[in-house]
């Protein structure tokens, strides 16, 4: 395990340990592939996804209490949301959960924030980027719906 983020901050040490348990606790013998309890829990439909999201949210709240910047908070919430949304898709989500380790990514963000001074600021540009992306997805969805509707109408 890497050095704790802040040796005197029990919250962050706890967050690192829980993150490792959820994302990297086990290794497949003979490989470097690591996984944790999160993808195993997520094999239980719906309940696994919800419990994984709740555990990740508790980790984020713990990290927020340590005084990180708003930008780091936004990026951490984005990580756990991507993990929850894609992880909820049957079959694809289960495979995704073994590779996309949101909690480990959030610990990395904390390290970069505290040790390298990265991710300072309010995070407004990240929020704007997310909103623009979601609007583009919505426009694409509407466009594809119109195309599909036209195709169905032409069948009759």
3D architecture notes:
- By secondary structure, this protein is mostly helical.
- The protein has two domains: 10-121, no CATH class; 123-156.
- It has helices spanning 10-23, 37-41, 47-64, 70-87, 92-99, 102-116, 124-155; strands at residues 26-27, 34-35.
- The protein has a two-stranded antiparallel sheet.
- The protein is globular and about 65 Å long.
Structural class of the secondary structure composition? mainly alpha
Estimate the helix proportion, in percent.
Answer: over 70%
Low-confidence stretches: none
Specify the biggest β-sheet.
2 strands, antiparallel
Q: How many strand segments?
A: 2
What's the pLDDT, averaged over the residues? Answer: 83
Give the spatial strand order of the biggest sheet: 1-2
User: What's the Cα radius of gyration?
Assistant: 19 Å
Question: How many H/I helical runs?
Answer: 7
Number of domains: 2
Can you tag this structure with a few keywords?
156 residues; mainly alpha; 2 domains; two-stranded antiparallel ribbon; 71% helix
Q: How are the SSEs ordered, and which strands pair?
A:
Layout: H1 10-23, E1 26-27, E2 34-35, H2 37-41, H3 47-64, H4 70-87, H5 92-99, H6 102-116, H7 124-155
Antiparallel strand pairs: 1-2
Helix pairs in contact: 1-3, 1-6, 3-4, 3-6, 4-5, 4-6
């Amino acid at each position: 395990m890497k050095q704790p983020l802040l040796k005197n901050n029990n919250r962050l040490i706890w967050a690192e340990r829980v993150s490792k348990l959820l994302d990297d606790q086990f290794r497949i013998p003979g490989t470097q592939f690591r996984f944790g309890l999160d993808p195993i829990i997520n094999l239980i439909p719906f309940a696994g996804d919800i419990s994984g999201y709740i555990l990740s949210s508790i980790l984020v709240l713990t990290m927020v209490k340590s005084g990180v910047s708003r930008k780091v908070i936004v990026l951490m919430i984005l990580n756990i949301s991507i993990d929850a949304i894609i992880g909820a898709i049957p079959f694809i989500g289960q495979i995704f959960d073994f590779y996309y380790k949101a909690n480990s990514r959030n610990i990395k963000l904390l390290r970069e924030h505290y040790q390298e001074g990265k991710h300072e600021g309010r995070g407004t540009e990240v929020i704007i980027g997310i909103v623009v992306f979601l609007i583009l997805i919505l426009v694409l969805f509407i466009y594809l719906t119109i195309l599909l509707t036209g195709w169905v109408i032409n069948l009759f």
